[in-house]
Every structure is written in C-alpha cells, then in structure tokens.
Amino acid sequence: MKKTFLNTARLLVGILFIFSGLIKANDPLGLSYKMQEFFEVWNMPALDAYTLGFSIVMIVFEILAGVAVIIGWRMRLFAWLLLLLIIFFSFLTGYAVISGKVRECGCFGNCIPLQAMGSFIKDLILLLLITILFIYRNEIKSRLSSRSSLFILALTLVFSFVVQWYALRYLPMVDCLPFKKNANIFEKMKPSPGAIPDSSVIHFVYEKNHKTIEYTADQLPADLDSSYTFIKRYDKLIRKGNAEPEIKDFSLISSSGSDSTVQILGRPGYQLMLISGSFPQSSQTWDKTFLLLYTLAKSKNIPVVLVTSNRTAGENWLNKNALSNDIPVFGCDATAVKTAARTDPTLYLLKKASILDKWSYANLDMAIPSIAELPVQSLETPN
User: Fold this and answer.
1) Is pLDDT above 60 for 382?
2) What is d(CA 70, CA 166) in angstroms, rounded to the nearest whole number?
3) What's this model's pTM, rounded to 2 decimal places?
4) Do 211 and 231 touch, CB atoms closer than 8 A?
C-alpha cells in the first residue's frame, strides 16, 4: 500500500513539474518579466539584468527534476532539491497572497494564468507530496540502469535548452499572449463580456478638534460645517473585479505627443508594424531583410510603422538605414511592448486591428511570401 502511494505521489509530482516547466519553457521571457515584478516589489532592481538567466536555469531544473523523480534517479539528492524549491515557491506565492502586490505568480506561464491564491494552494499540495517523498526518499529506487537514466536526463537537458532557445529566437511555439495571431487588438483592449468591475467605496477624511475623522459617503455627519476641515477623498477597494482587458496601455504616441492608436489601428487595408523595445545592436543582421520587406510593401502601397518604448533608439535605427523620412515612429508603454514583442524586434502584419501574422527578427525572410501575396492597395488608403 505504501509503495503504491509513493509511486503515485512520485508520478504526480514529476508530471506537475514537467508540465509547469514545459509551459514556462515555451516563453522564458514571461517568467523573466515575472521575476522582475517581484524584484521591483522588493526594491531589488539591480537583479533585473539577471532574470532571464535565472529563468532559463529554473525552467531547465524544473523539467529535469520532474523527469528524475518519475524515473526515481538519485532520490536522496532530488528529494532535497525539490523540497528546497517548493519551499521557495510556497514563500513566493504566499507573499503574493498576503501582500496583494503580485496578482499572478506565473507558475504555468501565460497559457494557464493562476491567481496568487490558486498558485499558493497548488504549492501547498505539492509541498505535502514532496515532504512525503523526502521522508521515504531512501526507499525509492530506479528500475532503470544508471546509463539509461543518464541518457534520459541528458536528452531532457538538451530538449529543455532547445525549446527555450527557439522561443527566445523565433517566438513561442504556442502563443498564449493577447497579441497572438488572429487576435483583434481593439477587442483585446476592452473588458470581456460579462466582466465584473472593481467595487469601491468613497471615503472622506476630515479634521475636527485636532482629530482626524474618516467617513464613507453615507456616514457624513449631519452637522458638517466649517468646523470640519477637509483633508482628502479617496476610493477604497472592497472587491476586486475581473474587468481588466487583456491588452493594457497599448497607446501609439506620435512624435507630437498625440495618441494615434485609433488612427493607426483603425485605418483600412493592410499594414506592417515593427515593434521593438530597444533595437539591440547584437541582433541587427535582419536589417537587410527588413529593407526588402519595406520595398515590397511600398510597391503595394502598404504602410509601415515603427512602435517602440525607446523612441531615440528607434529614430537612430531609422536614420542609420535612411528610413527616417519614410517610416513614422510611435512611442508605446514598455510593458505593452514587452508583451507584444517577445523577440526584439517583432514584425506584425495587420489588417486594421487584426493580427494576420507575426515574425521574429530571426525569420523575417518568411514574411516575404506573405507580403508578396497581398494585393496592391488603393492610394486612397491613408499612409
């Protein structure tokens, strides 16, 4: 009976760790940004530069540990490692629940968003199962030979790195982000039908007789007069709703400072949108391909715009490629750009606000056939 229970617990823990790791491996930048969110809350911004490395290592270990537990390889070692890891995860999710400063912990990436409380309960269940495995770790033996186990773990290690390398270079294989193919940006900027808005109560703060007194709107005293000195008014949240749209802060700000989101996303026909956070110098071998795409788009009267959270870097890149007079630059919130461009940069093919396709800087050549198939647009289409 005990053996059956241990095998079941081992299987559950292993599958959950592999599943969680694979979902995060599909988008390691997502976990990296979630780590940055925690570091910002803890006032540790100096660690932001290392979060991608932390993310890759953590994902690899999560998948590797799941496989090791399932095959029962060196349970004395991995029982310790898993116990320490789940205690760390439980601390993070518990902190998120208690502080309320982090709503989602990123345990299953963007594909299965879990609220902080759900993540915390999941970690507590895993903590219980792993504690049992830790207690009986000496009784768990692998049925595979040492050579077979090492071969499986080596394949797992390579696979874990390759999946993340692909996602970082060519975009996630499974796109769970709001800017995915066939999504309509305008629709994603609205709350979902039936969403419940936040519920809040207005509070008024006054001072009377050197005492600070706080009232809600229905508690204001009948003798409210000049003897009360108004201090402030604020809204106190009493129930968190779910009316937040999937896409937030995606505003396209022109060089003059005006919001051009509706103008750009609402114009008819096709257009190309190049989105970048900083135009990193380390990945600019795509320049020539983009110039070919721009020439092809121009021949079909398809407008091209550049969206960036670093306007200076964008303008410098356009100047370097003699495109400053041809492609308008629009500023955008850095978080929105990070969500829209999981590779820096990312090219979008839009029809109005609908995303027809998107490509990483590393495979821009694959966009050429798609653009070549498009019809020549009327010159009446605004550029």
Assistant:
1) no
2) 26
3) 0.82
4) no
